[in-house]
Amino acid sequence: MADRTVREQRRLIKFLLLIGLLVLLFGGGARAIVAGGAKSLDLADKLLGSGKGARLLLADQPYGRGARQSLDIWVPEQAQAGDRLPVVVFFYGGGWGSGERQSYGFAGRALANQGFVVVIPDYRLVPKAHWPDFLEDAAAAVAWTHRHIGELGGDPDRIALMGHSAGAYNAVMLALDPEWMRAAKSDASVIRGVAGLAGPYDFLPFEKGGMADRAMGKVRPPERTQPIHYARGDAPPLWLASGDEDETVRPRNSRNLAAAIERLGGSATLRVYPGMGHTGIVMALAAPFRAKGPVLDEATDFLRGVTARRVAPAAGAQ
């Protein structure tokens, strides 16, 4: 009897939360969810999404010794340890000064529902850390993934990266500058491609006192901090998406990097979403906000392409 009462109370609490979220969403309150950050977005996704198709396989897994060197892993609901599924390492944004992996379950669920094993790492943040600390952590997380994901249903030969804002910066830097993966005792060749959402790639000069200035303003020469400085024709394929109303990280960042990669003979796809801003592009991964634009569908189309199994040529083929 007591168990039944507890279950009923939990259902009532969930129902009341759901009603509150519906009022927010359809009463012009999506702005309130944005103001609440990724944690509110994750809650909305949990309550308004189907809740099916994905599960948290592993939480709080260390990839290093530091307090912020841990990761979570999401998998498709029916995934088995012996599977060899494509892998996406997702880096969240926050201006290199905020964010926590637990608030990005909506991204983990969205991508796992699409058939990927999804790794979401934390990394060191300003003010306790500065460039290149967060890049070193990102590389260490990818290196850990390459070493261990085969034991967890993923294919270590089919790893792609994805990120939003500062997280997109981290992901693209790992792909373009092989130094970071080498320093992590791995290799940039393990990265099959990168999907970047609203990432800063060409943003000199720094705004004095701004997020980038606090994170990397003391680096000399400052060009060392810029992904576009490392553009190369043999880089992994990039899918660079921005919203045309993004006033936080201007779409020119994606345009400039895509153009630089293409000039050098590389592969870069540019996607600019009309009517979408800086937060809207990552909100579109969450179930209640997918009508904002086909971000999830188009990003996962790209990720499937770059992580497709490579077929060896037949013996004797020219």
The H-and-E topology, N to C, reads as HHHEEEHEHEHHEHEHEHH
Helical content, roughly?
Answer: 25-40%
CATH topology of the largest domain: Rossmann fold
**Major sheet description:** 8 strands, mixed
Determine the CATH superfamily of the largest domain: Alpha/Beta hydrolase fold, catalytic domain
Structure description:
The chain contains 11 helices and 8 strands. With 318 residues, it is an alpha/beta fold. The protein has 2 domains: 1-35; 37-306, Rossmann fold (3-Layer(aba) Sandwich), CATH 3.40.50. It has an 8-stranded mixed beta sheet with strand order 1-2-4-3-5-6-7-8, with helices on both faces. Strand 6, helix 8 (211-216) and strand 7 form a beta-alpha-beta unit.
